[in-house]
Specification:
Layout: H1 11-14, H2 25-29, E1 34-40, H3 47-63, E2 67-68, E3 71-79, H4 87-95, E4 102-105, H5 112-122, E5 126-128, E6 145-147, H6 153-165, E7 170-176, H7 179-194, E8 198-205, H8 213-216, E9 226-230, H9 233-245, E10 254-257, H10 265-268, E11 276-279, H11 288-301, H12 307-325, H13 333-341, E12 353-354, E13 360-370, E14 373-384
Parallel strand pairs: 1-3, 1-4, 4-5, 5-6, 7-8, 7-9, 9-10, 10-11
Antiparallel strand pairs: 2-3, 11-13, 12-13, 13-14
Helix pairs in contact: 3-12, 4-5, 6-7, 12-13
Bound molecules: P-hydroxybenzoic acid.
P-hydroxybenzoic acid binds at residues 46, 49, 107-109, 130-133, 152, 180, 232, 259.
Length: 396
């Protein structure tokens, strides 16, 4: 990917593609609402992920009386269907017709690239509440782009490292063949290698297909002691069930990036019991913020919180840090970005700060699915920062 020189963001650019006149201080004080565009999947295999991100953003806004930095916030939602082929059109609609002045999105690592490009070109602030594409905080990094989730490398590296520490010498990888599965596979391999273990085979199927049988049939012949994987949402439910149904669960333990069992345990049932994963969150994390967050989310939605809810809540918290610094002025680029960069987010995962490339520096926990909960059983990689390779951050 080529490096582009990014000009400092202009005030007009920060207002987005919509032909909006800059708001004067009195207009802000009178409470002209900030249009916050949510581009997320509300259909398809990642629909539940988008719903939980959205519910947590709405919960945070409700806790703040609907205002951030004194400015009323109006949400504009768009279903991106996790479809990369519609991503450019969708982001143009969000910034054009819908007039979004800041964006939170999305889940899918391919779709997020359209949001990243739009943020770079137009300077509209973007907070990524899930998609782990390394380029967003690597080669395509920019002052206007922040992430409150992870890079695909982070949890998978932790998982590979933990497996090697447990004495596994040979492992295989199974995933969807797109950026997230590929990058997580690389992280898994690096983690294994860091402990003297090796990745002997990777097996792929196209996103979002769920015909796992041909891949699972190959596992017994690989001579591996564990299978690592990246799947999420509806696909993860099916994969974990099929893995157990294929009779592999006890002979070749399944593990992976924690999304494999995140928000899915009720649907996976006994098939998930005992599955170990690595992630920057766990259900029972014993800190005050997590307890309060889980109780409030349950009361509001009737659902248990998961990592997606946490990441959405933290995206709203990070935006609040910026808007508090600028008293609600989304176009005050320097103050907004400076405050967000320095933020220490009091997250249900534990407090975190951001790397120089705007990605969370965070513990990667080792978890084990136990009686319907992802129980934390250790720390796979403490305070893990993505290397942020290729990022040349433009000055503001
Ligand atoms: C991604 O495409 O980056 C992705 C999707 C779902 C997840 C995690 C990562 O749960």
């Amino acid at each position: 990917m080529s490096h582009q020189v990014i000009p400092a963001l202009s005030r007009r650019a920060l207002l987005g593609a919509a032909a909006l006149a800059p708001l004067s201080a009195p207009a802000l004080a009178q409470g002209a609402a900030l249009k916050l565009g949510l581009m997320l999947p509300y259909s398809g295999t990642f629909a539940a992920l988008g719903e939980n991100i959205t519910a947590a953003i709405e919960m945070y806004l409700a806790e703040k009386g609907g205002r951030l930095g004194g400015r009323a916030v109006q949400l504009v939602k768009l279903d991106d269907e996790s479809d990369p082929s519609k991503a450019v059109q969708n982001v143009n609609r969000l910034l054009g017709r819908d007039g979004a002045q800041a964006m939170i999105g999305t889940v899918h690592s391919g779709v997020v690239l359209a949001m990243v490009q739009a943020s770079r070109e137009k300077g509209v602030p973007l907070i990524i509440p899930n998609a782990g594409n390394a380029n967003a905080t690597g080669e395509l990094c920019a002052p206007s782009i922040f992430r409150t989730s992870f890079t695909n490398w982070q949890p998978a590296f932790g998982m590979g490292k933990a497996l090697a520490a447990q004495g596994v010498k040979r492992a295989a990888w199974i995933s969807w063949d797109y950026a997230a599965g590929r990058e997580a596979g690389q992280g898994f391999e690096q983690g294994l290698k860091s402990g003297g273990a090796e990745l002997v085979k990777s097996l792929w199927l196209p996103f979002p297909e769920a015909n796992f049988q041909p891949l699972l049939a190959q596992v017994p012949g690989l001579g591996v002691q564990a299978v690592g994987s990246f799947f999420a949402g509806g696909g993860a439910v099916q994969f974990v069930k099929d893995y157990a149904a294929a009779g592999l669960k006890n002979s070749v333990p399944l593990c992976g990036s924690g999304f494999l069992t995140e928000g899915t345990l009720a649907a996976q049932g006994a098939a998930a019991e005992g599955v170990r994963t690595a992630l920057h969150y766990g259900d029972g994390l014993d800190n005050a913020k997590n307890h309060a967050f889980r109780a409030a989310f349950k009361a509001r939605t009737g659902r248990e919180a998961d990592v997606y809810a946490v990441q959405g809540y933290d995206a709203a918290q990070l935006l609040a840090v910026g808007l508090e610094a600028t008293k609600g002025d989304i176009a005050a680029e320097r103050a907004l970005v400076t405050a967000m960069r320095a933020a220490r987010i009091d997250s249900p995962r534990g407090a975190f700060t951001l790397s120089a490339q705007h990605n969370p520096v965070q513990n990667i926990y080792l978890r084990q699915a136990t009686e319907g909960q992802n129980k934390v059983i250790g720390i796979a990689a403490p305070a893990l920062a993505d290397p942020g390779t290729g990022c040349r951050m433009a000055s503001i």
